[in-house]
Model the fold of this input.
Amino acid sequence: AQSVTQPDIHITVSEGASLELRCNYSYGATPYLFWYVQSPGQGLQLLLKYFSGDTLVQGIKGFEAEFKRSQSSFNLRKPSVHWSDAAEYFCAVAHSGGYQKVTFGTGTKLQVIP
Amino acid sequence: DAGVTQSPTHLIKTRGQQVTLRCSPISGHKSVSWYQQVLGQGPQFIFQYYEKEERGRGNFPDRFSARQFPNYSSELNVNALLLGDSALYLCASSLGGQGGEKLFFGSGTQLSVL
Done:
């Protein structure tokens, strides 16, 4: 069964500092991997997605993620965080079969301090 | 273009009651999925519907049911509500409903069961 682990429940960074959010997945084959962001009271917005090809994926809002098969990881990074990045971030995995079940991690809440 | 719309935005019910949540996908999207997000957790897959047929079902009891209409809108029904059903219910749509497609989420319906 597919699963996602986000070990950090809460992270605080200073505005302008770099950010890395950790994600580990478990899946039998090559998975689709995603990062979504959720602002308070809102639905989720896709930041980026990986399936194959270049292991460094660029997303929206200046985010990138690196797929490392050997570590079963898909960490999200941003070189310089803005106050508007404060939100909850979810790593997710989907199987490549004929239906669309996405398994989400428990999320990492990002706080940005001035 | 309108995004995914869900109604109502908030709902309060008592234990044992029944509830119906509604979702309109983005125009042209034929797949609708439902997710339950309990406070402090990531969303959990409930159902996926594509072209009015159920494509996938998560690990939820039979009290949960859904359907999709010819215009691709969808309803999620929950019978015999329990306190543990209190959650944010998210609807997501996609074009073809395949595993790796981008999901577009609505803002959700916040259900409180008293």
